[in-house]
Every structure is written in structure tokens, then in C-alpha cells.
Amino acid sequence: MKRLWAPWRIEFIKRAHLKPKGCIFCELPKKGLNKDNLVLFKGEHSFVIMNRYPYVSGHLMVIPHRHTCDFSSLSAAEHTEMGQLLSWCSTILKKEMHAHGFNIGMNLGEAAGAGIKDHLHYHIMPRWNGDTNFMSAVGDLRVIPESLQKNYSRLKKHFK
User: Fold this and answer.
1) CATH of segment(s) 39-156
2) Pick from 113, 120, 119: which is nearest to 55 by CA?
3) Model confidence, pTM
4) 45, 59, 121, 123: which is the annotated catalytic residue?
5) What are the pLDDT tens digits along the chain (160 aa)?
6) CA–CA separation, 63 and 134 (whole Å)
7) Is 121 tagged catalytic?
């Protein structure tokens, strides 16, 4: 039997059952832009952060600063800036990671699969022709070919 080791997953497993104090999406931007918190950019109404548990390399999230889970409560300014950041992210991911396409969307509410249900957020995931392989299809496993820190360094230079 072959074993595939993914020691970084234990961090996710340990945290999955903990009830965090406060909201991670409210707290992380206050800690600045750095590789530890994975925040790439802070705008007036929203920010861009890398997903700590990505589905693919370059998996980013665009999140409003204001704590809300109600999509209809977003102001026009919040919608506008988040839309602009999603567009900017797609441009950066095309340039730096040579993405062929994107999955962009939100999971609103626990029933929809929101891992953090109390603070809405967009996901933007770069995709490449042929990037679905047998590992995801039959192995219940994702292969992420680049570390978060290396990925952060590659992307951060575009968020100035």
C-alpha cells in the first residue's frame, strides 16, 4: 500500500471542532498584509486573502470588512469594490498562474456549504484545462502543487 502524507491537514482537522472567539475574517485584516495571515490586499470596503485550505493553487477569497452573512445587506459600494477585486484577482491569476478559467462564487449559509457561515465571502479559484484528475475523482484527495507561502510570494507582488 502506498501512503500519501499531507501533514498540513492536521491543522485543519484540529481547528474544525474548535469554536473560535470572534470572526477570523474580521480579525485577520487587522494583523496586516503578510504570509502568516495570507492577506494580500485591503481596500476601503473589502479585502483579498488566500484560502488557508485551498481547493487549487491560487484559491483566493474576496471578503467585505463589514461582518455580515446577508448578501442583500451589502451596500452598492461594497458590491462594487468586491466586483472590482474579483476582476483584478482574475487578471492577476491569468498573468501569474496562467489560469485558463475560473470558478467564482459564494456559499451562503451552512446548508449551502459555507465553512464560515457568519461572514460572507467570494471564492475565486483558477482552473486549467485538464486539471481534474483521478486523485479528486476516486481518491477523495486534492493535490496542491505549491506551498501557500510560495504562492503568496508569487501573488503578493501584483497587489500593490
Assistant:
1) 3.30.428.10
2) 113
3) 0.79
4) 121
5) 566 677 777 776 776 666 667 899 999 999 988 889 999 999 999 999 999 988 888 999 999 999 999 999 999 999 999 999 999 999 999 999 999 999 999 999 889 888 889 999 999 999 988 776 555 655 566 667 778 888 888 888 898 7
6) 32
7) yes
